[in-house]
Amino acid sequence: MAVFDHGQSDFPDQALVLQPESNPKQAMVAVPRPNYEPELIQRYGGAGPRYTSYPTAVQFHEDFSAVRWLEAIADSNRLPIPPDLSVYVHVPFCASPCFYCGCNRVITRSPLVGKRFLVSLEREIALLAPHFDADRQLRQVHLGGGTPTYLDCDQLDELLKLVSKYFRLADDAEVGLEVDPRTVAPGDIGRLAGMGFNRLSIGIQDFDQAVQKAVNREQDNARIAGLIGAARAVGFASISVDLIYGLPLQTARSFARTIEAVIELRPDRISLFNYAHMPHMFKAQRQIDESQLPAPEEKIRIFRASMHSLLDAGYEFIGMDHFALPEDSLVRAKREGSLVRNFQGYATGGDLDLIGLGPSAISKVNDAFAQNRRDLEGWEIDLAEDRLPIWRGLICSIDDRLRAEIIGRIMCDNRLDFREVERHYELSFRRYFADELRALEPLADDGLIEWTATGFQVTPSGLLFLRAIASRFDAYLGQDGSSRPRFSRIV
Ligand SMILES: C[S@@+](CC[C@H](N)C(=O)[O-])C[C@H]1O[C@@H](n2cnc3c(N)ncnc32)[C@H](O)[C@@H]1O
Ligand code: SF4
Question: Rounded CA gap, 295 and 27, in Å?
């Protein structure tokens, strides 16, 4: 996924109940059943980071050089067990702007841009790949955007071949593709499988045609069922869909029909994003008629009803905006405590080093982050002149690493055991984090967390305010979790 996720946005509401799994041997999974508690939303639903990384991308700085980045890669090769690799390719092109979109994309109809993009991409891979030890396997490849399927099938094939020419692609690698259903026909799916894709993520957003029209994204709903059917028939390992609530003209009643239709399609995973409306940052959003946006109470009704329907239909709540079927690897990872959070949201696969390619893509290797130039032209020029197109980055301090681990555990496990942190970092948690623990007291009083003998547990109500809880450990924000307007509202 793309840039709207780099430090921003998510969803409402609270009050959940813990329900046992059907197999009592398995861990209890918190099943949220949100109720509308306006005071909590008022208090904890303000702006906040999504914590797809810590520190978040807004902390990256521009005096971070390519030399420093290559040193970080060399350091990662020298680790006792260097982690395997994951590649994200940001393909920025879209044929028309969806008005809600907060992703980094270039609107174009040119048939030539894809070819040029692949030339630059090969340069980028050729500059970077030799710096990673050859025995580090590539476990995941993900194409996001923009619209990767702006590239035609031959170009997508070429892209995957480039990646596997320079990296050692594992036989069982997860190879995923974001699909705009307006650009792919069910008949293309077999070809995509033949190239090596085994995971699809389809952007639905909303099936309601009036909503689609209001956001300039009219699509053929019937085609989505065809795409999913075709993907199942050729054995795709995972199919996920994206939905957004909070879009213009949506109502609890209209969105219930969308959710019902999605449940019928039974994708393995569902992302139910809270519309991040930040017209000061995303120009296309200024085309949205704000008077058509659902009122906050209606938005909460939409989210609450959607969540109930998904849980009733057998989906499990992973966290924030993610749901998955019980047999999906995300649910397994959540139960086993191996869920991670990265720039694509919640993910499996543990600690892989992440290589981001394409404009605006972010990489994380060992303790360093680097982000590419956001503008397509700048990215292309750097590569044409054989420079790594790095815009900004950051090397984590020990304090950053410590806080990243804590925030990651809160976001993924919904609990924190101070002893585990003390074991890794040789410190007294209560002393080091005395201010943070004080800042958590009001959240405990409001029932969002419960103290345990050695830490705390997020309560069912608190699950919907994970970002607010995690933000108490964010050294770059105010102690009350307050942040600047570059983050979208939590609720
Ligand atoms: C890169 S887009 C998906 C791929 C493809 N371009 C498409 O539209 O189907 C990734 C997802 O980000 C989500 N998204 C984009 N802008 C958003 C916003 N402002 N608020 C919430 N979600 C957003 C949408 O659900 C979208 O499917
Ligand atoms: S197709 Fe629409 S939602 Fe997808 S990246 Fe392009 S503008 Fe954004």
Answer: 37
Task: Give the model confidence (pLDDT) of 419-455 as tens digits.
Answer: 999 999 989 999 999 999 999 999 999 999 999 999 9
Let me know if 419 is exposed, middle or buried by CB neighbors in 10 A (0-12, 13-18, 19+). exposed
The predicted model scores a pTM of 0.91
Q: From the alpha carbon of 98, which atom of ligand 1 is closest?
A: 8
Buried/exposed code over 245-278 (b: 16+ C-beta within 10 A; e: otherwise): bbbbbbebebbbebbeebbebebbbbbbbbbbbb
Ligand 2 binding pocket mutation candidate from 5, 100, 103 (most atoms within 8 A of CB): 103
Strand partners, 215: none
Does the beta carbon of 273 lie inside 6 Å of ligand 1? yes
Domains with residue ranges and CATH for the chain: 3-48+397-471 (1.10.10.920), 59-364 (3.80.30.20)
Hunting for tokens 């303000």 — which residue is that?
46
Q: Which of 109, 180, 218 to mutate to test the pocket of ligand 2 (most atoms within 8 A of CB)?
A: 180
Using an 8 Å Cβ cutoff, are 198 and 232 in contact?
A: no
